[in-house]
Write a structure and sequence with these properties.
CATH class of the largest domain: Alpha Beta
CATH architecture of the largest domain: 3-Layer(aba) Sandwich
Strand order of the largest sheet: 2-3-4-1-5
Structural class: alpha/beta
CATH superfamily of the largest domain: P-loop containing nucleotide triphosphate hydrolases
Largest sheet: 5 strands, parallel
Strand content: 5-15%
Order of helices and strands: HHEHEHHEHEHEHHH
């Protein structure tokens, strides 16, 4: 009974916030980047970082749809996530949408305390629950630059320090997040895609123009990519 009350004490989050976005009508699949992300099997973290308009969300959403959907927890961050309790409520609801999380796992039932990111007992429960999951789970936090309050980041830093075996944290952001990326790089446990890799190749630009019925000759795709920086 106590666990049921815990679940009810979470802040309510919109379903769209924890749902992988649908592909755009003009989607250009990017196998060269999806292959890089597929190499994240043993990584503790994934970071896709670039300014606005580089296709970070589209790339991560396509990757999430290609993976075992039972093993991906998605959170589209926005300014509301600066409320620490709402952020952790959304994280737990995202985990709860994963079929890989067993019905009795505490991630489905945990209460969210008043200050979750500084509640070491709560964070330890989350880490232990992830350790008990039968297989890895990817938590994607998209548009993470919207989280400017230090609270949620403090909690994520603590969670990463616990390094639960069942978790890969994937972040997309316009700037580098306050997480121990350097340590993950040194340990070869970070998969990173920045602006240079996200820029369109000439072949990808041709596919985009073809899908949009743009009257651009194929031999002009390369020069156009060069002029626009991809």
């Amino acid at each position: 009974m106590r666990q049921c009350r815990g679940a009810a004490s979470r802040r309510r989050v919109p379903r769209t916030k924890i749902t992988v976005p649908a592909p755009p009508a003009d989607l250009v699949s990017r196998p060269r980047l999806l292959g890089v992300l597929d190499g994240a099997s043993d990584a503790a973290m994934v970071f896709v970082g670039a300014p606005a308009g580089f296709g970070k969300t589209v790339l991560l959403a396509e990757w999430a749809r290609r993976r075992d959907r039972e093993a991906v927890a998605w959170l589209s961050a926005d300014a509301d996530d600066n409320d620490d309790r709402l952020f952790w409520s959304a994280v737990l609801e995202a985990f709860g949408s994963c079929g890989r999380i067993p019905e009795g796992n505490p991630l489905r039932l945990l209460a969210v305390p008043e200050s979750p990111s500084t509640d070491l007992g709560f964070l330890a429960q989350v880490a232990d629950a992830l350790d008990a999951v039968p297989g890895p789970v990817v938590l994607v936090i998209d548009s993470a630059q919207e989280i400017t309050s230090p609270g949620p980041w403090h909690g994520l830093q603590a969670l990463v320090r616990h390094q639960p075996a069942g978790l890969c944290l994937a972040i997309s952001s316009r700037r580098e997040p306050p997480l121990p990326l350097g340590r993950a790089r040194l340990a070869d446990r970070l998969v990173e895609i920045g602006a240079p890799r996200l820029r369109f190749t000439a072949a990808e630009a041709e596919a985009l123009f073809a899908g949009a019925d743009a009257a651009i000759p194929p031999d002009q795709a390369g020069p156009l990519v060069a002029r626009t920086g991809g």
